[in-house]
Amino acid sequence: MSVCTLTRTRCCCCTALECCSTTMAAASLSVDLDFTRRLPKIELHAHLTGSISRACLHDIWMSQKRQQPDLAIEDPLVAIPSGKVDYDVQTFFPLFSSYIYKLCNDVASIEFSTTAVLHEFQSDGVVYLELRTTPRAIAEHNISKDDYVRTVTHLLTAHNEDTSNTMRVFLILSVDRRNTLAEADEVIDLAIKYRSSGVVGVDLCGNPAKGDVRTFTTAFSRAKAVGLNITVHFAETAASATDQELHTLLSWQPDRLGHVIHVKDEFRAMIEARNIAVELCLSCNVHAKLITGTYSDHHFGMWRHSSVPVVLCTDDVGVFCSPLSAEYHLAATNFDLDRRQLKQLAERAISCIFMGSTEGGRLRNIYSTWEV
Ligand SMILES: CNc1ncnc2c1ncn2[C@@H]1O[C@H](COP(=O)(O)O)[C@@H](O)[C@H]1O
């Protein structure tokens, strides 16, 4: 093994200079959207309902309108105008509770939208997806939370069993901050029940202005005790970043943290000491004004120099309209990353997946043969 004088990196696969010059030539090629689409990507923080495109919501609306001409729900293309992405904490959460959940409220619309979401992630070059969703009971259609989870897991299993698909997908069940402890326990029970059908972990999400996370400590402790993986929305707003809240969330021993915006040095140090992976969502944080400033001010710039794995994610591509390939492109242009660095960023996410060794092996194979 020798040290290349150009990059001062070690080459382990061939004659030092040749290897480095090839790598450098590839790295110096510009990063464009064609490259970031082709790049195999791992998506670990995507909310199912937030990932439904406007076009898909419109198709659902059209189909419902045909069946019920007096349908009292506005056309999604009017309710969520094309190009509108400036949803902030006040307007974002009601979009689901007051609108999208009313539209996607039967088995047909859940199946149609979930299938479309899987197709869109795969078409964008995602090779491994952990989709998350909050179990939802829909009384008017006689759908229980169990029915909802079963419906989604069936679709995911069918997707994974189709060998023509290049992406594998697994499910994380979300507890909403507005839930009671009994409701959170129900989510954990469902995660346990559907583990053999592809549920790999549990999440805490929802409006960061609501709820007291201490309510859920016993539920998440139970999830941990049975070996479910845990990811939580962490310090998304100043209100959800009190010392008490962050200590409570860390006491659940989460495997990954989402957003991680308002963290003091003390918490940064704890996250690094425990090597907890961070799921960062550039466009969501900029459009929703969860950060001050723009892309180049995003805390990705800080975390990427830390020791913890950093995973770029979309959060809600249906709302913020930036697919994962666009997020990689934004990272490249705002933080001056070349092709080789983007590949390393994408590949590092393998160490953070909840599905474990079989998938890890498949993903390592994909990256080992993929040339920048
Ligand atoms: C801005 N970032 C975010 N922060 C917190 N929670 C979020 C979120 N984005 C989405 N959700 C949560 O995911 C639900 C929609 O998907 P599912 O119905 O679960 O598939 C939203 O109602 C919200 O609770």
From TrEMBL:
Cofactor requirements of the protein: Zn(2+)
Keyword Cell division: no
Keyword presence, Zinc: yes
Family membership noted in the UniProt record: Belongs to the metallo-dependent hydrolases superfamily. Adenosine and AMP deaminases family.
Any Pfam family: A_deaminase
InterPro entries, alphabetized: A_deaminase_dom, Ado/ade_deaminase, Metal_Hydrolase
Gene3D superfamilies with a match to the protein in the record: Metal-dependent hydrolases
Protein name: Adenosine deaminase domain-containing protein
Swiss-Prot/TrEMBL catalytic activity: N(6)-methyl-AMP + H2O + H(+) = IMP + methylamine
Single GO term (MF): adenosine deaminase activity
Gene Ontology biological-process entries: adenosine catabolic process; inosine biosynthetic process; nucleotide metabolic process
Subunit structure: Monomer.
Keyword field: Hydrolase, Metal-binding, Nucleotide metabolism, Zinc
Domain Adenosine deaminase: 40-359
